[in-house]
């Protein structure tokens, strides 16, 4: 593949509402090269990438694809020219690797999306290039972080575009997997000629892998070009606010930044200000790896060589032991400089940290403080314009008497975007906002003073972008991938709205309903239950700690231990047809997702389950009941208990 398309911006302006993020930006991605964008948090890196992928509408200027305004180009044309991989993409429930990669073929399919041999070949080639062929039948939920990232890249490759944009593809990966992913991208660029634009936080890895480096700050470009020409001590100081020394990377010869201290500024006090550090040039010995040592990396790279295209081979990674030796030597120098500082913090610092760890919260008063995965969020006064984006967040706000001006409709209810149990709670229909990819311009136009994204993916970029629009209550610690129960969700949202007492009352009333249902049905106690699903991709089962299982456990059931034994990091496990007997339990409950209910109840393999043969199974064929069970908000639970509990009881008679 050779690069055929060109991507540029001219006079680009981007913002959210009245907040300007980027102004007057001109960017040219060098065709067939690997461009890396670096810069401090919130400088506009991800915003730029999203705009270049046509996910954001410019406030000024334009994005040009082959010299034409990308917003005047059809979606299919754009999708066959460029692909975008966001920072933390979310895979559909229980989807396999092969099915996820296959979704990259959608731009190449006709109106009726008929699968062709070309699609099969494209998927196979993408999986081969990313070394995930042996994972084809595995559930994406079961994969490690590095494997999952390779699968997402494979999906982007299956799209067969000349341009690929990746927003922080190494986030949350350990150093070994970071290098694996970046090596893979280098191979794709070298072997297929794919034009790559990648946002990275690690400046040293950016220098090692980039052909072209763009350094951003405050929505503008400070410098761009070959890493050797761009990365200097003054540049690092200007962009990142760090005093540093730039030395040749012993493994690649590219610039390597050794930070020493944060630059003094009105906004950030140097963390080492009490311990002046000598200039490194007088204290750092020559730490370059001698090439005559046994096991020393053999490479044809010339130190500070500006363009990878001039090289014949890629750099060989230094041996792990040599790398650790070099790193230890450097660390020893740094620790030596710090030794005079002592080992403890002042009493004031300790007191401050103890106060932060307490997680103090308001109890209905303002300012209200809510602890999230991203830190503590303070709501200064009672919000008047709330946007609710998380799963069930809008219904929770409605239960508290607050009507959001905008909300996401996760289950495609239509109308006001809520279930029938919440009908009539809106005086005026809210603005509908996208779910996995919310339209930030639409949110900003609503001028919210609070954004609720409590039951959500926990994606850092999503949170950072929303926080620029208004104070945002994100997922709690440990709540990534929608793993937050209705009690916690209600507590966080009620506190943010200044209605903590009402939230506690709602939780207590709902818990009474669970208690009453459990007492009315002692036959539920300690019986095993499987909460499963059937999609077009296959069978799945929910694991302990998820809402659906929590619902059953509060009635007295125990989740199927065979399912929990297979649990990974996701909220469900995929179940193959060959292993469908794993679903068997005292009660088997299955929800259809995107398929008809009779596809489950008439399935020959499903009918072989002992529980099914005894009549101890429930297949939700009423969409309202299934949706109430899935929503699991403080507002929908009452409806679910009323409708679902009798079904469970009848099935166990």
Summarize the structure.
By secondary structure, this protein is an alpha/beta fold. The protein contains 22 helices and 25 strands.
Could you characterize the architecture of this molecule?
43% of the residues are buried. Helix 5 packs parallel to helix 6 and helix 21 crosses helix 22 (637-651). The protein has a 6-stranded mixed sheet with strand order 6-7-8-3-9-10, with helices on both faces. Strands 20, 21, 22, 23, 24 and 25 form a 6-stranded mixed sheet that branches. A 5-stranded parallel sheet has the order 17-16-15-18-19. A hairpin with a 2-residue loop joins strand 20 and strand 21 (538-542). The chain has 653 residues and is an alpha/beta fold. It has 22 helices and 25 strands. It is globular.
């Amino acid at each position: 593949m050779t690069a055929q398309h060109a991507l540029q911006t001219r006079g680009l302006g981007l913002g959210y509402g009245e907040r300007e993020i980027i102004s007057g930006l001109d960017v040219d991605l060098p065709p067939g090269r690997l461009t890396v964008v670096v810069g401090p948090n919130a400088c506009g890196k991800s915003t730029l990438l999203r705009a270049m992928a046509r996910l954001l509408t410019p406030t000024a200027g334009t994005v040009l694809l082959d010299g034409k305004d990308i917003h005047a180009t059809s979606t299919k044309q754009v999708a066959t020219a460029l692909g975008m991989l966001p920072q933390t993409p979310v895979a559909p429930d229980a989807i396999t690797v092969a099915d996820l990669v296959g979704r990259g073929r959608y731009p190449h399919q006709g109106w009726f999306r008929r699968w062709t041999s070309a699609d099969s070949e494209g998927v196979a080639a993408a999986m081969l290039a990313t070394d995930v062929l042996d994972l084809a039948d595995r559930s994406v939920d079961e994969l490690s972080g590095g494997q999952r990232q390779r699968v997402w890249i494979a999906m982007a490759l299956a799209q067969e575009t000349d341009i690929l944009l990746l927003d922080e593809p190494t986030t949350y990966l350990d150093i070994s997997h970071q290098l694996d992913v970046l090596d893979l991208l280098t191979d794709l660029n070298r072997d297929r000629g794919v034009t790559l634009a990648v946002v990275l936080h690690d400046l040293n890895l950016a220098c090692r892998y980039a052909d072209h480096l763009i350094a951003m700050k405050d929505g503008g470009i400070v410098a761009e070009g070959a890493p050797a020409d761009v990365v200097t001590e003054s540049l690092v100081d200007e962009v990142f606010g760090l005093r540093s020394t730039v030395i040749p990377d012993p493994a690649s010869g590219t610039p390597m930044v050794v930070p020493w201290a944060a630059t003094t500024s009105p906004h950030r006090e140097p963390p080492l200000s009490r311990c002046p550090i000598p200039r490194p040039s007088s204290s750092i010995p020559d730490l370059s790896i001698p090439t005559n040592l046994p096991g020393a990396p053999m490479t044809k790279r010339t130190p500070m060589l500006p363009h990878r295209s001039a090289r014949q081979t890629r750099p060989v990674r230094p041996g792990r032991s040599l790398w650790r030796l070099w790193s230890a030597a450097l660390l020893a120098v740094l620790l030596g400089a710090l030794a005079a500082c002592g080992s403890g913090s002042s009493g004031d610092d300790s007191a401050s940290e103890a106060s932060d760890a307490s997680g103090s919260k308001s109890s209905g008063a303002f300012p209200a403080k809510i602890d999230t995965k991203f830190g503590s969020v303070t709501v200064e006064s009672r919000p008047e314009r709330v946007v609710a984006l998380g799963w069930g967040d809008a219904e929770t706000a409605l239960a508290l008497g607050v009507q959001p001006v905008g909300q996401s409709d996760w289950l495609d209810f239509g109308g006001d975007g809520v279930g029938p149990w919440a009908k009539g709670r809106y005086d005026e229909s809210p603005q509908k906002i996208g779910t996995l990819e919310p339209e930030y311009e639409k949110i900003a136009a609503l001028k919210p003073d609070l954004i609720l994204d409590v039951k959500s993916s926990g994606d850092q970029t999503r949170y950072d972008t929303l926080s620029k629009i208004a104070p945002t209550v994100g997922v709690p610690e440990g709540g990534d991938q929608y793993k937050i129960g209705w009690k916690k969700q209600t507590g966080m949202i009620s506190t943010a709205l200044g209605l903590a007492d009402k939230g506690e009352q709602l939780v207590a009333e709902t818990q009474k309903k669970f208690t009453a249902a459990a007492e009315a049905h002692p036959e539920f106690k300690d019986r095993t239950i499987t909460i499963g699903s059937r999609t077009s991709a296959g069978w799945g089962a929910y694991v302990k700690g998820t809402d659906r299982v929590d619902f059953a456990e509060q009635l007295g059931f125990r989740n199927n231990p065979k399912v929990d034994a297979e649990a990974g990091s996701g909220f469900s496990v995929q179940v193959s047809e060959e292993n469908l007997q794993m679903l068997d339990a005292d009660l088997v409950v299955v929800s259809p997702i995107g398929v008809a209910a009779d596809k489950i109840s008439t399935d020959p393999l499903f009918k072989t389950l002992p529980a099914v043969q005894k009549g101890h199974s429930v297949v939700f064929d009423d969409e309202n009941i299934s949706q109430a069970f899935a929503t699991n908000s403080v507002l929908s639970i009452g409806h679910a208990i009323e409708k679902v509990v009798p079904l469970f009881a009848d099935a166990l008679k």
